[in-house]
Design goal:
The chain is α+β, with helices and mostly antiparallel strands. It is built from three helices and seven strands; from the N terminus they run αβββββββαα.
Length: 140
Amino acid sequence: AGSLAEMTDAADAVVVGTIARVSPGRVFGGKSGRPLHYAALSVEVSSLLAGSVEGAQLTLEVPLFDGPDSIESLEAAVGLEAIFFLRAKIDGPFYRLSNFGAVVANEDGRAVTTDGPTAIEELAGRPFAEIVAVIAAAGS
């Protein structure tokens, strides 16, 4: 998915939401001796830009590749408002990012991105409200 419209179409949901809580999540592969831990981010959905979600709150699972202690790096995200491009997981009411970096954060009214899909990186620095409208239009 290269363009913003393609990313929006490929997502099960694109939401504007605020991270309300970060907590330890599920663990997979424990029998292997190298379990993969996840953080569970509770996201309060304020706006649905494309697709569908059930309810006004969802759980975004983020893999902790550096082990369970690396959850501390995510705790600073509590209170962050962002646009999330999401895929529903098949094993429960959980979501994951459609691509690593598929997030556009609101920092003092400006769009901020990390290393992610090129279509998202191009949005950095523009007014956040403008980006919400651009992404909503891409999904219609």
